């Protein structure tokens, strides 16, 4: 008889550039202050990638660490899903660059764009592909170089974003732990509140941006703020219902790190104390899809997680996209 198995996270890794950009550095670049940024966002500093460094280097570093942490050989990886909205190239994909750099010669590779929700989207794909038996060991690598996609003259956006990479290996687990449930969604109708043009953009979209800044992030901050605060708690409630689990049984919520006030609003709606809501915003800023795997890696390395702990991963982002997952920790 075949043993029952689930898909679980069996290894994590993360990587950051060396250079930091503090709020005090930003004070010299744009009309802002450490006090404003800290109070309104919870961010103190973020990492910034060197202009000569490809994002694939960071992504590969995080990936190698995740594979090592999983205790498998890189040749055992049979699929790489990279999530990013700031790839070095559209082709080759970031996943293909990582495949080459880490020597994952037996892996297929492709990129996913679900903006900041990318990791949760990839997690559902990985779960389906593993539980169906199509793949055995999937590497998800979420990497972003958002400082390359902001206008450092636009104080509404440039203070929020940073760079970094997080990775996770998803494999069969047979001990009852693993990914219990994933709930994904999108509201394309609201897509225009957060945009990054690529090869085409409307005149209206171009007029929102500074001279020569056609491919940078533009965002209606307050619209995104309201959406994010609501969707974080709604998606969490949906996943709890789907998995027939109570919020009190959840050890930690790992939310996408965008603004500490969004996390506080959602925690309040859910009746969860902030001690159970993981945050590293102060030191990383918003690193889009990389934020959840980086947080998981940090918490794992700090020995905050034990096998069987129930966790909620919840994210929202451009698109607009959102998603939540209930995971029973497998390491
Ligand atoms: N420094 C100083 N002042 C700033 C500023 C900055 N970096 N950015 C904006 N301001 C100003 C505004 O211009 C505005 O000034 P005004 O009243 O003279 O017009 C004032 O601060 C208040 O702006 P407001 O937009 O109401 O601030 P806020 O408290 O909503 O915070 C964000 C703005 C962007 C931090 C907040 O809306 C946010 O976090 N939104 C969600 C962003 C997000 O999560 N994006 C990624 C999604 S994955």
Can you walk through the features of this model?
By secondary structure, this protein is an alpha/beta fold. It has two domains: 6-176, 3-Layer(aba) Sandwich (Peroxisomal Thiolase, Chain A, domain 1), CATH 3.40.47; 180-328, Peroxisomal Thiolase, Chain A, domain 1. The chain is built from eleven helices and 13 strands. It is globular. It binds coenzyme A (COA).
Low-pLDDT runs of 5+ residues are none
Q: Helix-strand pattern, N to C?
A: EEHHEHEHEHEHEEEHEHEHHHEE
User: How many strand elements?
Assistant: 13
Describe the largest sheet.
5 strands, mixed
Quickly name the level 1 CATH class of the largest domain: Alpha Beta
- The named CATH superfamily of the largest domain: Thiolase/Chalcone synthase
Q: What's the tally of helices? A: 11
Helix fraction bin: 25-40%
Could you give the distance between the termini?
26 Å
- The CATH topology of the largest domain is given as Peroxisomal Thiolase, Chain A, domain 1
List key phrases describing it.
331 residues, alpha/beta, Peroxisomal Thiolase, Chain A, domain 1, 2 domains, 5-stranded mixed β-sheet, 4-stranded mixed β-sheet, 11 helices, 13 strands, 33% helix, binds coenzyme A
Note the topology.
Blueprint: E1 6-15, E2 20-22, H1 23-27, H2 34-41, E3 45-47, H3 55-70, E4 79-83, H4 94-102, E5 108-112, H5 118-131, E6 137-145, H6 155-158, E7 163-173, E8 178-186, E9 194-195, H7 203-207, E10 218-219, H8 221-242, E11 252-255, H9 260-270, H10 281-284, H11 291-301, E12 310-317, E13 321-328
Parallel strand pairs: 4-5, 4-6, 11-12
Antiparallel strand pairs: 1-7, 2-3, 6-7, 8-13, 9-10, 12-13
Bound molecules: coenzyme A (COA).
């Amino acid at each position: 008889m075949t043993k029952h198995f689930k898909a679980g996270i069996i290894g994590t890794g993360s990587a950051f550039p060396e250079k930091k950009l503090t709020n005090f550095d930003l004070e010299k670049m744009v009309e802002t202050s450490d006090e404003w940024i800290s109070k309104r966002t919870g961010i103190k500093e973020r990492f910034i990638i060197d202009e000569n460094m490809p994002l694939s280097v960071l992504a590969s570093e995080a990936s190698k660490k995740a594979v090592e942490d999983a205790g498998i050989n890189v040749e055992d990886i049979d699929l790489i899903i990279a999530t990013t909205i700031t790839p070095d190239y559209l082709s080759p994909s970031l996943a293909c660059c990582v495949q080459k750099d880490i020597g994952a010669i037996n892996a297929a590779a492709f990129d996913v764009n679900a903006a900041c929700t990318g990791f949760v989207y990839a997690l559902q794909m990985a779960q389906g592909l593993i539980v169906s038996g199509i793949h055995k060991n999937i590497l998800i690598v979420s990497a972003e170089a958002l400082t390359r996609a902001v206008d450092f003259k636009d104080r509404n956006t440039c203070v929020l974003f940073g760079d970094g990479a997080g990775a996770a290996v998803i494999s069969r687990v047979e001990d009852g732990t693993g990914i219990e449930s994933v709930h994904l969604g999108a509201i394309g109708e609201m897509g225009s509140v957060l945009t990054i043009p690529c090869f085409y953009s409307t005149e209206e979209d171009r007029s929102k941006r500074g001279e020569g800044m056609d491919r940078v992030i533009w965002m209606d901050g307050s619209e995104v703020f309201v959406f994010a605060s609501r969707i974080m708690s709604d998606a969490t409630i949906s996943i709890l219902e789907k998995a027939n689990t109570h919020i009190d049984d959840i050890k930690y919520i790992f939310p996408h790190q965008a603004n500490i006030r969004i996390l506080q609003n959602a925690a309040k709606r859910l009746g969860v104390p902030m001690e159970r809501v993981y945050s590293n915003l102060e030191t990383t800023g918003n690193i889009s899809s990389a934020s959840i795997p980086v947080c998981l890696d940090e918490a794992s390395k700090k020995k905050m997680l034990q096998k069987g702990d129930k966790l909620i991963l919840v994210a929202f982002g451009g698109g607009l996209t959102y998603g939540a997952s209930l995971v029973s920790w497998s390491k």
